[in-house]
Predict the 3D structure of the following.
Amino acid sequence: MADKKRILLIDNEAGLCRMMEQILVDHGYLVRSFTSPQKAVEEFKAGAWDLVISDIKMPGMSGMEVLQIIKAKQQDIPVIMITAYATVEMSIQALRKGAYDMLTKPFEPDELVYRVKNALQQRQLLEENRELRAELEEKFRFENIIGASEGLKSVLERVSKVAIRDTSILVTGESGTGKELIAQAIHYNSPRREKRFIAINCGALPENLLESELFGYKKGAFTGATESRAGLLETASGGTLFLDEVGNLPMNVQKTLLRFLQEKEFHRLGDTTPTRVDVRLLSATNSDIKEAIKCGVFREDLYYRLNVVTIHLPPLRERCSDIPLLASHFIMLQNQKFKTVIRGFESEALRCLCEYEWPGNIRQLKNVIEACMAVETGEYLSRETLIQFIEADTGNTSVSSDTKGISTDVPYTAALEHFEADLLRGLLKRHKGNIDAAAREAGMNMVTMYRKIKKYGIRKEEHLPG
């Protein structure tokens, strides 16, 4: 019963009202009908109904008035208007005031059911989109980006300042450091968060295809262009377009992109009419664009247009204190995905994990943990398992000054305790001070969790929201 959709039906013709009610009830809907629009409006409560169906011509209060009052109470509820005197002007007026659909009398029962199904499906899609957007905004909140190192904190402070400003940003850093993650965080913390975030890898497509993907083309622009097509710049209108590996853009595409940044318009391939869109451009590179400028393969004027603000992501070897937190996060994700119960790393494996230089950065760490969890037979990932996927000899690796207790100069017990304290702080932060939730993720009982919080002098109040 709880899954049945709830419909509020309003029509002053009692016979028609009963007939529509019976049709909808027979198709599994919960229906409450009113012949008095005033009474229906009084009874309407936001969130209590999934759909409203109302006649337009009624004594005392017109359907248009009903529509306005209901929309004022709940903007997102679909409303189907019924009339025997449909005109183009009336339809336009109803749609402008928020009606989802118009149904003209007389109508067949099947048509009523069809219109109702469409309206409810549209509502469900809107709800799913809102939920997805809320999940994305939560996922890309700055405090949910894993890590507590000074290097990452500095990056996130800078990102939080520039996210709200509608300016072009160039994210630099080695491959695998999380440049797209930062670009997504910028988008979902900006005024454009309600619109689309679209990413394209500029190095993954051939030159001719990249140009048409970005700018679109007009029908007949080239062999095979059987219809006009919008490019990613148009698709992202109102939102954000992220150009990954922007240093690989061919010169002809650079020229068109520069024109867009200067004029806010461009031409589709084969089109003589300019197209104007409102898009924020974010870009990223792991290459030295200044060197590319010297070599004549990247336009200096475009570089300065893209690089209004630079955000540089440090490699993982410079934020070693984040490795245990990232590892714990990836283990949790894999456990959730495959219903496994891996609790973490054995002490020797953890030492090896923290001393390794990670040339592939966070992406490599994630892949290694996934591989380890695929073959591990125990509750903890062992050194023997780990060294199958990374070089075991870490004697020549350099250790950053940002190790904060994980450096090989510090006794191992102290390093392990520091890792444990950082892990607990990270868990409490992620769960907003909820010790029970943090203990479950860590695989500890509540007593142990409280004991360790006390041992390390961690104050849960620091991690409470607001």
About this structure: The chain is about 45% helix and 10% strand. Residues 109-139 form the longest helix (31 residues). Residues 393-412 have pLDDT under 50 and may be disordered.
